[in-house]
Design a protein that fits this description.
The complex is a heterodimer.
Chain A (H helix, E strand, L loop, with lengths): L2 H20 L12 H23 L26 H10 L6 H6 L22 E3 L1 H10 L10 E9 L5 E7 L8 E8 L11 E14 L6 E12 L9
Parallel strand pairs in A: 1-2, 4-6
Antiparallel strand pairs in A: 2-3, 2-5, 3-4, 5-6
Helix pairs in contact in A: 1-2, 1-3
Chain B lengths: L1 H12 L1 H7 L3 H33 L3 H7 L4 H11 L7 H13 L4 H14 L1 H10 L5 H24 L18 H33 L2 H5 L5 H15 L6 H7 L5 H10 L5 H11 L1 H26 L1
Helix pairs in contact in B: 3-6, 3-10, 5-7, 5-9, 6-7, 6-15, 7-9, 8-9, 8-13, 9-14, 9-16, 10-15, 12-14, 13-14, 14-16, 15-16
Classes of the chains: A alpha/beta, B mainly alpha.
Chain lengths: 240, 310
C-alpha cells in the first residue's frame, strides 16, 4: 500500500466521518455529544491525507530522509485497506438505527432504581408526553403514584413481545449502538396496536398497574393502558 | 492506486443494490453495530494518534528520563497513575504506549500505562458512578483493581518479559530532518495501522453482539464461578469502549456484583479489538503472551477485590 493510496483511503474515511457528523446520520450510531469531536477528528483525517499528498509530491530538498522518496521501499501497513469498509458503510449503506431485532435480543434496561427515587410531579399537559424510560421508572419504582389520574403520551417503535403481542420499545444508548439496550413497555387495554414491527407509533392512554418480567433478563416490564394510537415518523433522535 | 479508483467508482455505481443487500435484520444490526463502534472510536483513535505523534516527534527523549523515576520498578506505579490524565478509551492508548517505548520509556512502565489509562481516567470513573447509583463502592473497586492489575503486569514484565517479544516496526520516517514531515508521517502511519486493526476488532465485536443470545448468558448467572468466567469472556468478546462498559455491566443485573466488577476490569485491558491493535503495534509474539496473562491477572484481582468487598 503506497502512500498515495493511504492518503486516498484516509480522505475517503475522514470524508465519510465528516459527512455523517455534519448531517444527522451520526445520530444513528452515537450520542449527540460526540459530534464536535467527530467533526474535529474527520477534519484531522482530511488534513493528514492532504499533508501526506503534499509531502509526497514535494520531496525533501536534501533527500536524506532515509528512503527513496517514493515510499515503496518500506513495509507499509496493508491492513489500512480495511478502513475502506467503514467508509463504505457510512457513505453508501448508512445502516438504520437499531430497531426491533436488537430490542428482542436484549433484556430491558430498567434494572436498578435511580439513586434519588423521589419522582417530581408530572409537568402540565393533556396528554403529557413522557419518555419510555421516565414512564417505566415511575411505573415500577414509584408504583405509578405520580402517574395516576393523568393522560399520557408515549412514543416508540413496535416490537414483538414474548407472547407475540406488540410492545412499545426504544433503544437506550450509553455511548454507541454497540451498547444499545432496549427499554420496553407492554401495551394493555382494549385497543390493540396492530402495526408491523419497527413502525413508529404514538400511544395515548393511562397508567396500568400490570408488571411482567422480561424473559431475557427477568427485569420488570411495566404495562400501559392504551386508549388510542397513531403512526408517526421516527424522531430525529431515535435513541433515548 | 488505479485499482482503488476503480473500486470507488464501482461502489458508487452499485450503491442501490449494496443498500438492498443489507435488508436482513441480523445483517442490518451487524452493520449498524460495526459502523457505530468505529464512529465512536474515531475521535479517540485520532486524538490518540496525534498525541502519540507529538510524543514521537516533538517531546525530547530526555524528558521521559526526567519525568519518570529512574528505577524501572518505581516507574511502573508512576506510569500507571499517570493514566489518570488521559481522558479517553483504550483505542487511543495503544499507539501512545508504542510511542513511549520508541522514545526510550522502559516497556514495563509503558505497558502499565497502556493498561491503566483507559480504566482509571475521570470520564470512565464518572460513567461508572452514574451507572451504579446504588453501589458507589464500585467506582473505588474498579479504580483500585485496575491499578493493581496494571502495576502487577508492569512488574511481571520486569521479571519475565523479554524485549525481543516487542517488535516495533522500523520507522525511519520518524527521524526525518523536517519535524512537520515526520509528524504527518507518524499520523498517517498510525491511523492506517491502528485504524486497520480497529476495523478487524469492530467486525469481531459486531459479530459477537449479533450472534451471542443474551438469554443463554443469563443461564450462567446463577453460579458464582461461572458468572465471573462468563462476564470476563463477554468483556473480551464484546470489546465495548471503556466509557460505556459500566452501563452494559449495570444492565446485566442478573449477575453478581463481583462478576460485573471483573467485567469492568477485564474490558479496558483485554478485548478483541485491543488484541488486534496490539498485534499490529507491538507484534504477534508480544500480543499472544501479554493478552492471556493480563486476562488471568485481571480476573484474579477483580474477583479478589469483589470477594473482599461483597
Amino acid at each position: 500500500m503506497n502512500r498515495q493510496a493511504q492518503a486516498v483511503v484516509m480522505m475517503f474515511f475522514g470524508g465519510a466521518i465528516l459527512k455523517a457528523s455534519l448531517t444527522d446520520v451520526y445520530l444513528r450510531y452515537v450520542k449527540e455529544g460526540l459530534r464536535p469531536f467527530l467533526i474535529v477528528a474527520g477534519a484531522l483525517l482530511l488534513a493528514a491525507a492532504v499533508m501526506t499528498l503534499y509531502h509526497e509530491f514535494r520531496p525533501p530538498r536534501d533527500g536524506a530522509a532515509g528512503d527513496d522518496g517514493h515510499g515503496h521501499a518500506h513495509h507499509e501497513p496493508r491492513v489500512g485497506w480495511l478502513l475502506i469498509l467503514p467508509a463504505v458503510g457510512l457513505l453508501l449503506i448508512a445502516p438504520p438505527a437499531l430497531g426491533s431485532y436488537a430490542a428482542g435480543q436484549a433484556g430491558t434496561v430498567l434494572a436498578a432504581a435511580p439513586a434519588d427515587s423521589e419522582f417530581a410531579p408530572l409537568p402540565p399537559g393533556d396528554p403529557v408526553p413522557l419518555s419510555l424510560m421516565d414512564y417505566a421508572s415511575r411505573a415500577v419504582f414509584d408504583e405509578g403514584r405520580s402517574l395516576t389520574g393523568r393522560t399520557l403520551r408515549l412514543t416508540g417503535f413496535v416490537t414483538a413481545g414474548p407472547d407475540g403481542r406488540p410492545m412499545l420499545a426504544r433503544m437506550v444508548l450509553a455511548c454507541c449502538a454497540a451498547d444499545g439496550r432496549p427499554i420496553k413497555v407492554g401495551l394493555a387495554g382494549g385497543v390493540s396496536v396492530d402495526a408491523p414491527v419497527d413502525t413508529w407509533v404514538q400511544v395515548v392512554g393511562t397508567y396500568s398497574s400490570r408488571v411482567e418480567k422480561d424473559p431475557v433478563n427477568k427485569a420488570d416490564v411495566p404495562y400501559f393502558e392504551v386508549t388510542s394510537w397513531q403512526k408517526t415518523t421516527a424522531p430525529r433522535q431515535t435513541y433515548e | 492506486m488505479e485499482a482503488l479508483a476503480i473500486l470507488l467508482v464501482l461502489l458508487v455505481a452499485f450503491r442501490t443494490p449494496l443498500a438492498g443487500l443489507v435488508s436482513d435484520p441480523r445483517l442490518q444490526t451487524w452493520t449498524t453495530v460495526f459502523v457505530s463502534v468505529l464512529v465512536q472510536a474515531v475521535p479517540f483513535l485520532v486524538f490518540g494518534v496525534v498525541l502519540s505523534a507529538v510524543i514521537a516527534v516533538f517531546v525530547p527523549r530526555s524528558f521521559w528520563a526526567k519525568a519518570l523515576p529512574r528505577h524501572p520498578a518505581l516507574a511502573v506505579p508512576a506510569a500507571s497513575l499517570a493514566g489518570v490524565v488521559l481522558p479517553g478509551c483504550e483505542c487511543g492508548s495503544v499507539p501512545i504506549a508504542g510511542s513511549l517505548i520508541r522514545r526510550g520509556v522502559t516497556p514495563a512502565a509503558a505497558l502499565a500505562f497502556l493498561l491503566a489509562a483507559p480504566a482509571i481516567n475521570p470520564i470512565v470513573l464518572t460513567a461508572t458512578a452514574v451507572a451504579f447509583p446504588g453501589n458507589p463502592e464500585m467506582v473505588a473497586a474498579r479504580a483500585g483493581a485496575s491499578l493493581v492489575v496494571a502495576m502487577t503486569m508492569g512488574w511481571l514484565w520486569l521479571r519475565l518479559g523479554k524485549s525481543e517479544w516487542i517488535r516495533l516496526p522500523r520507522r525511519p520516517d520518524l527521524d526525518d530532518a523536517s519535524r512537520a514531515r515526520a509528524f504527518w508521517a507518524a499520523c498517517r502511519h498510525d491511523v492506517m495501522h491502528a485504524g486497520g486493526f480497529l476495523v478487524v476488532g469492530a467486525a469481531a465485536a459486531a459479530t459477537i453482539n449479533v450472534v451471542v443470545p443474551e438469554p443463554w448468558l443469563q443461564g450462567l448467572a446463577a453460579s458464582p464461578v461461572l458468572s465471573v468466567l462468563a462476564l470476563a469472556t463477554l468483556a473480551v468478546l464484546l470489546s465495548i469502549c471503556s466509557e460505556a462498559d459500566a452501563f452494559v455491566a449495570a444492565s446485566l443485573s442478573q449477575f453478581s456484583l463481583t462478576s460485573r466488577l471483573v467485567f469492568l476490569v477485564v474490558g479496558p485491558m483485554v478485548d478483541l479489538k485491543l488484541i488486534s491493535m496490539q498485534t499490529g503495534v507491538f507484534g504477534r509474539r508480544f500480543a499472544f503472551r501479554f493478552a492471556p496473562v493480563t486476562f488471568v491477572t485481571a480476573v484474579v484481582v477483580g474477583t479478589g477485590v469483589g470477594v473482599v468487598l461483597w
